Amino acid sequence: QVQLVESGGGLVQAGGSLRLSCTASGRTFSVYTMGWLRQAPGKEREFVAAIRWSGGNTYYADSVKGRFTISRDNAKNTVYLQMNSLKPEDTAVYYCAATTRPLGEYEYWGQGTQVTVSS
Description:
Blueprint: E1 2-7, E2 10-13, E3 18-26, E4 33-39, E5 46-52, E6 58-60, E7 68-73, E8 78-83, E9 92-99, E10 108-109, E11 113-118
Parallel strand pairs: 2-11
Antiparallel strand pairs: 1-3, 3-8, 4-5, 4-9, 5-6, 7-8, 9-10, 9-11
């Protein structure tokens, strides 16, 4: 099992920045990718960004590409999401999640952290 604990959410004005962190524990050796997904009120959960744990390859949703950056610290089993140029549309609960194989579903989830962007 893998446990994920995320933090860093908060309130920010449009155009501002936030940095989310997610630390994994447990059987971290089994993690293939770690990613961020978000869900806004009344909307479906959507993919934001992901990173391969070993190779470091990154993937982004079109809506955040160029504004958000995902990174990792393997020694700390931690993934980060640097969010710049935030928009009100970015307001959502952000979840850290992990897969254990290349084409696998997200199997492990954090508790979520609220990001609110005011106009």
